[in-house]
Amino acid sequence: MSLLVIGSTGTLGRQVVRKALDEGFQVKCFVRNFRKAAFLKEWGAELIYGDLKVLQTIPVTLYGITAIIDASTARVSDFYTANRIDLDSKKILIKAAKLAKIKRYIFFSIFDARNYSNIPLMNLKVRVEEELINSDLDYTIFSLCGFFQGLISQYALPILDQQSVWTTKESTSIPYIDTQDVAKFAIRSLSIQATKNRTFILAGKDSWTSFEIIELCEKLSGQKSRISTIPIFTLQFMRKFTKFFQWSWNISERLAFTNMLIEKQSFDISMDEVYSIFHINASEINSLENYLEEYFSRILKKMKELSEQNKNISYIDNF
Ligand SMILES: NC(=O)c1ccc[n+]([C@@H]2O[C@H](COP(=O)([O-])OP(=O)(O)OC[C@H]3O[C@@H](n4cnc5c(N)ncnc54)[C@H](OP(=O)(O)O)[C@@H]3O)[C@@H](O)[C@H]2O)c1
After folding, report:
1. Ramachandran sector of residue 313 (left: φ over 0; alpha: ψ -120 to 50; beta: rest)
2. Helices marked H in the chain — which ranges?
3. Ligand 1 centroid to 219 CA: how many Å?
4. Which of 39, 51, 65, 101 ranks highest by number of CB atoms within 10 Å?
5. Pocket lining for ligand 1, CB < 6 angstroms
């Protein structure tokens, strides 16, 4: 089976490529920057040029493809609105996939998007889900809450760097998940008929508030954090302000997620049925404690090695 992975340089997309290659799939990666994607080629994937904002580049990338795994989303740093990537290009992708007789289309949405259609990115996700459901294509949609990997830049790095960790007082408990586990479900779905034309919520083992994550990072790193709380109304003001400028529309759309904090979202999700359909045992799913423990032990070991090297260099300098 030949897969086209879109968004393959991203946090989730690269794990999907890794898992697919490990499982023996032929993998083509739809990329807009070959240099940035060189590591995927080293892993054994084929690179094909495509840019989601240049719609004409899409159809040719589907030649010889059996299934599409779309893990793309607009980058906050890109100078255009998310609509172009997260809606317009997806509509074209879905049309082209139908013409190319693609056998399965895998899409990643956001948990509970239908209840938050006032949040622009959630609204785009719902519209693509509907487009896919009404397309006659065989699809599988995964609704996700948040990734372990995102917590590194948000909490672990600032704590290690003794920088401020920004959070709000209104901290929702979120069942973050490892992208390696999401990739496992996505690739497994290709060989399980019961996952066809269905939507699955993928949640991690436990839910975590930002204060609990900070406490865990402090314990594992042995460092005390400097917490700075930002009032919700400041985020709301920033959202309105960033909406004025085209260069900051993507930032404004991300800040719209503060609405979820005000409404105190609840994520009480049982994964038992999903594990059973995908023949995955709960023990195969990574926990946040384990993920962060591995991260900090690796980083602290590296820091110790560097400090030893610097000590040796200064001994040589002084010799
Ligand atoms: N992150 C989360 O916590 C979270 C939560 C729920 C759902 N999701 C969903 O999960 C999926 C993966 O998210 P992620 O966080 O892994 O994304 P990410 O790290 O931000 O990666 C985005 C990917 O999309 C690609 N992309 C963006 N614009 C493009 C364009 N014009 N042409 C071609 N490729 C383009 C990027 O390529 P470049 O490297 O070239 O920029 C990158 O590979 C998305 O559908 C997202 O909405 C994520």
Report:
1. alpha
2. 11-22, 38-43, 82-83, 89-99, 120-133, 150-151, 157-160, 179-189, 210-221, 232-242, 249-255, 258-262, 272-277, 288-318
3. 31
4. 65
5. 7-13, 32-33, 36, 51-53, 71-75, 85, 108, 110, 144, 146-147, 150
For the chain, the helix, strand and coil percentages under 3-state DSSP, each to the nearest 5:
50, 15, 35
Count of positions (residues) in the chain? 319
pTM of the model: 0.90
Per-residue pLDDT reduced to its tens digit, 51-84 = 999 999 999 999 999 999 999 999 877 876 788 9
Query: Which one of 3.40.50.300, 3.40.50.720, 3.40.30.10, 3.20.20.150 gives the CATH number of domain 2-303?
Result: 3.40.50.720
Q: What is the DSSP letter of 147?
A: B
